[in-house]
Write the structure tokens for this entry.
Amino acid sequence: MGGGIGISALMVLVLSVGRIVLGIWLISAPLPLRDGARWRVPLALVSFAAAYGILSLIFLAPVMNGTNAGFYTGQFVAFSLLLISAVGFFLVIYDTSVWTALFCCTAGYTIQNLTSGATELFWTLAGGGAPQSADFFTPLRLGISVSCVVVVYGLSFLLITRYLLSTGLGRLEDRSMIAMMVIVILLIIGFDLVVKWLTDHGVGIVPMLFLRLFHGLACAFTLTMEFELLVRRRVEAERDTMRQVLAERERQYEQARESMAAINARVHDIRHAVGRIADADGVGGEALRELVREVKVYDLRVLTGNEALDTVLTERGLTFARDGVTLSCIADGNAISFMAPADVYALFGSVLDAAATCGGASVSLVVRERLGGVSVHVEATGEEPDAAMLRPAHGIAARYGGTISTLTRDGAWHINLLFPAQG
């Protein structure tokens, strides 16, 4: 008899730990494991199961009559400490921050508790009696438990895990996760035990049904709130990154503009000085005139009516000339006056840099107003460039409602950018 009870208790422990671990895994699946995961994972799982057993012996064994307030208080303390300890075992396995661990453990435990609440609801509706008096291994109880696990965990995988696997979880640094831990302990664990206590003490089926539905909604609300925090933090991080990118673009553009202005001024002065010497009679006149022609290449300034576009075209034009590539352009700079100078510099720099890798001898650019919008067409002879080079251009174009399309045909690469009319 005692051996049977011991085996039954061991099986309950294994199943309970398994549900908690599986719930946490549904959230933590995208995270990287620490080095030595082959020994860390089993060590953490065995330690977590041992912690569950020890907490049960300390807080539950002395009050094991199943229905008094002391028993439910013991469960509340034991489960709360178990949830807190799960954070430590989580950090043994995963290479992440304590705040990420709090997020995964609280969300995973909420999924487990939602499953437990659903099991108790259907068990009571099926006439199984009070939750704590249930034999966990009767066919009815097992059938209800397995069905709830399959449904709740399956939906969690489809709605949560797949989303996290596709977007990534990242490393959270959000101290509000401490508040989520408190909410899960009080609202999820605490309220679940209150419902069980009321059910054990004969609360009617209708009030119990509403209480269980409220508990399920509380679990769903808690998960939603946690993911709302996750999404909000991610948006804030992306916004901060974008600010840094924009600041860097602005700095690069200003630096390029000032450099090109200084170079153009200096080359212009040198050309005129050398020209005056070459026009004078004397030895080396022809050589000096040849030098004037060479220097004149670096005194070419593109004037489109847009200073940022002038800067990037002049800068890339010098680079192309040095590499033996001809850059021709017909550009109405006023057509893109709706764009920030730094965005103009980054957009056309990205496109022209991609064109430069095609390996051909010529690159042409056309910027013009068309059908109320703006079209940009670049053609480069040679092979298609690496698509990754156009990622900055895609981001900038999308910000202004524009689209980008590319085509390789007849030994030339074409890229078209279309921007709608800007209000």
